[in-house]
Amino acid sequence: MELIKIAFGGGCHWCTEAVFQSLNGVYKVEQGWVSSTEENTTFSEAVIVHFNATEIDLKTLIAIHLRTHKSTSNHSMRTKYRSAIYYFSESQKAEISYIIKMLQTDFIDKIITQVLEFKDFKPSHKEFQNYYKNNPQKPFCEKYIHPKLEFLSKKFSNSMQ
C-alpha cells in the first residue's frame, strides 16, 4: 500500500489532527509546525497527513479541511494559524489548486486558503501529540474539537472511521 503525504494548516493543530485522525484511509497524522518558502517561511500550526488514495481521495480531504477551519476568513491570527495546503510535488500543487477552484462554488465567501510548497516541519512536543485521543474530556476538546467531529459525522459519514 502506497501512502501519499499532504499537509494542512488552518486552525489549532490539535483540532486539525483530530479531524484527520478520524478519517478512513488516513494512516498517520503528524502534528506540529510547517514552514514554506518566500513570505511564508515562518512556522505555523499544521499537520502532515499520510493517506491511501484508494480509500480516501485528495478532493475529500481538501473539502473536509476547508469546512473544519475558517478557510474564508483572514483574521488576525493567520501567522500562527495559516490557512494553507502544503504540497510535496508540482503535480500535487496543480491538483490542489484545481480542487479548491471546484469547491469554491460551495462557499459564499472567497476561499483564502493558500497552496504552498512544503519546506520544513517541526513536530509538537510528545505530550501534545494525539491530543484529542488522549484528552477527549478536556474543556478545549469538548468546546472546539467535538463539534468538528460531530459535523464530520453528519456531512462526511462515509469517510469516518
Q: What is the number of helices?
A: 5
Strand element count: 6
| Helix and strand pattern | EHEEHEHEEHH
Uncertain runs with pLDDT below 50, 5 residues or more?
Answer: none
Q: State the shape.
A: globular
Radius of gyration: 15 Å
> What is the number of independent domains?
1
> Can you list the strand order of the major beta sheet?
5-4-1-3-2-6
- Main β-sheet: number of strands, strand sense, barrel status? 6 strands, mixed
Termini separation comes to 18 Å
- CATH class, please? Alpha Beta
Written overview of the protein:
- With 161 residues, this protein is an alpha+beta fold.
- It has one domain: Peptide methionine sulphoxide reductase MsrA (Peptide Methionine Sulfoxide Reductase, Chain A).
- The chain is 34% helix and 22% strand.
- The chain has five helices and six strands.
- It has helices spanning 13-21, 58-67, 90-103, 131-134, 139-155; strands at residues 4-9, 26-35, 44-51, 84-87, 114-117, 120-123.
- Strands 5-4-1-3-2-6 form a six-stranded mixed sheet, with helices on one face.
- α1 (13-21) crosses α5 (139-155) and α2 crosses α3.
- The chain is globular.
- The model has no long low-confidence stretch (mean pLDDT 94).
